[in-house]
Amino acid sequence: MKVLVCVKQTFDTEAKIELKDGKISDAGINLIINPYDEVAVEGGIQLKEKGIAKEVVVVSAGSDKAMDAIRTALAMGADRGILVKQDTAADEYARACALAEVIKGESPDIVLAGHVAADDGSSQVPTRIAEILGFPHVNVITAVEIAGGKATCTSEADGGTQVTEVSLPAVISSQVSWNEPRYPSMKGIMAAKKKPVSTVDAAAVANKVAIVSVALPPSKQAGIKIEDEPAVVGAKLADWMLNTVKVEVK
Amino acid sequence: MAGTWVIVEQKGGNIRKVTYEMLSEAKKWGDEVSAVVFGQGVEALAPEFAKFGADKVYVVEGDIFANYNTGAYVAQLAAMINEYQPNAIIFAHTFNGRDFASRLAQKLEAGLATDVIKANVSAGKGVFTRSIYAGKALAEVEVATVPVLATIRAGVMELAESAGAGAVVKPAIAASAADVYQVVKDFIPTVSARPELTEADVVVSGGRGCKGPEGIKLVEQLADMLGAALGGSRASIDSGWLGHELQVGQTGKVVNPNLYIACGISGAIQHLAGMSSSKFIACINTDTEAPIFNVSDFGVVGDLFKVIPVVCSELKK
Ligand SMILES: Cc1cc2nc3c(=O)[nH]c(=O)nc-3n(C[C@H](O)[C@H](O)[C@H](O)COP(=O)(O)OP(=O)(O)OC[C@H]3O[C@@H](n4cnc5c(N)ncnc54)[C@H](O)[C@@H]3O)c2cc1C
Ligand SMILES: Nc1ncnc2c1ncn2[C@@H]1O[C@H](COP(=O)(O)O)[C@@H](O)[C@H]1O
What we know:
The complex is a heterodimer of chains A (250) and B (317). Chain A is an alpha/beta fold. Helix content of chain A is 30%, strand content 33%. In chain A, the strands form 3 sheets. In chain A, strands 11-10-9-12-8-1-6-7-13 form a 9-stranded mixed beta sheet, with helices on both faces. In chain A, α2 crosses α5 (186-194). Chain B folds into 2 domains: 4-179, Rossmann fold, CATH 3.40.50.620; 197-316, TPP-binding domain (Rossmann fold, 3-Layer(aba) Sandwich), CATH 3.40.50. Chain B has helices spanning 17-27, 46-50, 70-84, 95-107, 213-225, 234-238, 269-275, 304-316, and strands at 4-7, 10-11, 14-15, 33-39, 56-61, 88-92, 113-122, 125-132, 137-143, 148-152, 167-169, 183-189, 202-206, 229-232, 259-263, 280-285, 298-301. The longest helix of chain B has 15 residues, at 70-84. The N and C termini of chain B lie far apart (58 Å). Classes of the chains: A alpha/beta (250), B alpha/beta (317). Bound molecules: flavin-adenine dinucleotide (FAD) and adenosine monophosphate.
């Protein structure tokens, strides 16, 4: 069984966002694998360790820099990488088209992805890929069992937890609580240097969504800060809640 | 091309508040507004949508629509779009809403703006504000395809009642069991008497500073006095003091309540991503340097084990 994992390179979640010429600047920013995708990579590797998967291939669409994300995934234990060279301004539609094209050529049994990218926050690409390929999909999974050509996924749902079965090949996107991604070992990092990575150009597809402008949100001002005996601060906080916020007490 | 469609979020006849928020918002766009409700036995809900201005209510009923499933819902909605040609369709940015909208958008080879916090739509042109980089930046995007598609974050659009005709329309059923490719084996509802995080007016959250179930109990006490939802930081979820569905932050839920009270939470950037757009923020923390104070309207430097009981007894008065 072949597992393919979509990894997006994103800003470190601690990164401070700054604008330059009306765009988000990546100067001095530490780039990482999108945290959810790291979980997907770990999930893929575990399927291999359990003997369910034979090969774990990671695919990333982006600039040459995304090679680092691929190497990190290889150092964790993935077998092979594909860099799909694409303008990082590609929207979800264009990215899904580019990734789906490559995935089609690989004929995987399972496509893993993160359920959302920490940078654009859009939660679209895995579902779009599934639609293009005509695969079923399940999003935001916290566990999966693979058996008999089917994936049984436990996922977060509105108002509860859901268990869904789909037949393979399928697209599955991860929630962080699925697993705890491993750190690449020194041996893994050395081995990753020798693992094969191919590079392809993305299919030229026009965006369907245009970015009009990017801005920083109005910064929230710190308000009142008080320090005193619990009886005093507690009473003041209750008073603020009742008279300024106007909460209702049940 | 005409009209805005609001996709209703309901389960077992319980309509999510975000549905009304979307209807109220769509009403401002000056186009005819319709609610589209999928389910079984949901026609009776139509008057509820009329109260928030729905001119029409498309009722899609059938066994295969009883619970959300991507395949049948997408096939049905795509056929309806073809028949009625709406200008814009908005979904809630819930697990189901974003799943539905994404698969539909790709089927139509269309653009989609997700997790929208501000909208400006007129005659088939849609410009939306989205928060990106976990709330650290805002992007204004234009969806260049028609119908304009977007998912709307809960709690950001203002509710406004207005009478609509609510005329029931029953579109032809175009989806069949063959369109269903996900088999739901089980659904385990989260049992809680408290409101859900993303829908609550007040959210009270506990972090590592609660030190264990005892501290969490105090936070729950305060939450219940305010009819609030309970939330937590990743530290308290990872420690097993709270269920994972209660995590607030970048990898948890984004909340927009009127009041957010952070108890024993330091205010890490990933936590702020989930709550910093709350209208009012209060915190209780022993460390005067904790970053949570930088976003708090009312910060208390103090021990939550001593302060919360005082707050509760003062509120009771
Ligand atoms: C990729 C990624 C994603 C993440 N996503 C999330 C997320 O979605 N949500 C999230 O919350 N975190 C997230 N985190 C984790 C985040 O970085 C922090 O580690 C976490 O928020 C810390 O939780 P905390 O504030 O409860 O704990 P701490 O940072 O340990 O803070 C505890 C606070 O309690 C105070 N305190 C101690 N005793 C008392 C007392 N008696 N009374 C009052 N105050 C007291 C302390 O002064 C301290 O400020 C993420 C991290 C990463 C890397
Ligand atoms: N450029 C990309 N390269 C590889 N995978 C991607 C890319 N963009 C999105 N994905 C995958 O799709 C998931 C959701 O991304 P998004 O729809 O952008 O929120 C990510 O977690 C990745 O797994």
